[in-house]
Amino acid sequence: MGHAPRTRQGGIPLYRRIATELWERIQNGTLRPGDRMPSEPELATEFEVNRLTVRQAIVELQRLGAVEIRRGTGTFVAAPPDLVEIIARIPAPAPDDDATHAALAGHSDGVVETLLPTRPLLRVEERIEAVTEASGRYGELAARELGVPLADLFRLDTVMVRSGQAWIVNSYWFPRRLEGVVEALGEHGMVIATLRDGLGLDLSYRWRAFSAVAADYHEARLLDVPTGTALLVRDGVTADAAGAPVFYVRRRLRGDNAKFVLRYGA
Amino acid sequence: MGHAPRTRQGGIPLYRRIATELWERIQNGTLRPGDRMPSEPELATEFEVNRLTVRQAIVELQRLGAVEIRRGTGTFVAAPPDLVEIIARIPAPAPDDDATHAALAGHSDGVVETLLPTRPLLRVEERIEAVTEASGRYGELAARELGVPLADLFRLDTVMVRSGQAWIVNSYWFPRRLEGVVEALGEHGMVIATLRDGLGLDLSYRWRAFSAVAADYHEARLLDVPTGTALLVRDGVTADAAGAPVFYVRRRLRGDNAKFVLRYGA
DNA sequence: AAGTGGTCTAGACCACAAA
DNA sequence: TTGTGGTCTAGACCACTTG
Question: Quick check: A251 and A235 in contact, CB under 8 A?
């Protein structure tokens, strides 16, 4: 049977009290980045609770990005993220301002000057993950934005890899007349470069937008993060030289990993 | 004792199999927004697992934003979010372009034309949450960006309320010479408006940036969301007419609630 | 082999909301 | 009062990593 219920001060659950206690040890430096936390059995003894209760606290700290759990090894205080700033200058880039253009597009592609990582940046590559029919909420958004029927679109999913690690998950909705981009990708390495150099398109932005989501199963698997991790989303519509919309793109990045910066003036 | 271990296909945990099964029922429309899910005991019977296992699945779906759990009542398929688009036009606003200025600042303040909610927008208000010493990671960032010692700064925390609901959590780092803004806030309602109209400052952007974080305990409480919810962050430095940096601000919004849009060209 | 985290069970008691 | 979700326990077995 259950046990004598412990008095809970202020109705705050035990696991939350343990989590905030550990959180404060991290905030005030009692536990430092890289430090190994006591094991779950040890914490259970220290706080005089069941191991499952202490585990609930630790998993919450993991979701907050405060600790990193390594199966079979232990739990460690998380290190500050390896932040990459993707910088754009405002006023808007002319269509031929490649550096700014690429920076806003969210890839480097030879313009590493606009990427300011805290560690040296290695090569970014983009690999195809899937080519599928357009459908669902974003497929319908794409059809609306591009002014074509849903059936005239296809979806291209890719993953950008930086320093060997999955960095950005991209989904493009293209009109079928651009299906050639899939074949041509190998030559130019990146989708935007392929459109520009391979297919000769002169691209410019219609709009770009920023939002945030919790990683779903698909995104979590591709980015190798826990389900529900906070992701930064940058979606938008790109047009050709005549101003006609060409494709809709939706990029998802680990929120603690990258930052889009808009600099104003000179 | 434990039971005969169930065969786990492909090593996928039971709770994950249940979660993805329910996820698909939601995606394919078997369960529709607003529908009530079967109760935890019912699901436990259906899937022939312990209630705690089914609960682990449901909580995961809650973190994905797929369901909404109402204590004492039941669990419901989440409705599409009440999205507000905050729109700015590029090239950059002149300092006197109030509408665009306010849109980028992330508040309405009489320029509701630039806010396009899916439902009618009610009044936005900003209330003071706390005034504290500057410290920590962002305090140090602010001191660096503003070029003043940490001790010369103070921090102002506010919450913007829209339609009666907490919408944006703001943290401002100001030089102490601007402490008057706290007293003057009541008259003008919003911090930026107070700086402009009350203190006569002519403000413009140095930079703005977008990132994403998981809601910590403080943010989760103020926004009334679960700990770890994905938040969109927009931080930046604002300068005076002479181009000298004045303050650093960091705004956090529910990621499923708002979207910053940059429109290019006319 | 030993220790770590990951999953699952059975059972209990609680807080909350609606009837 | 009934049923819902929220928390907690004791115990078990598992997968993984490191000596």
Answer: yes
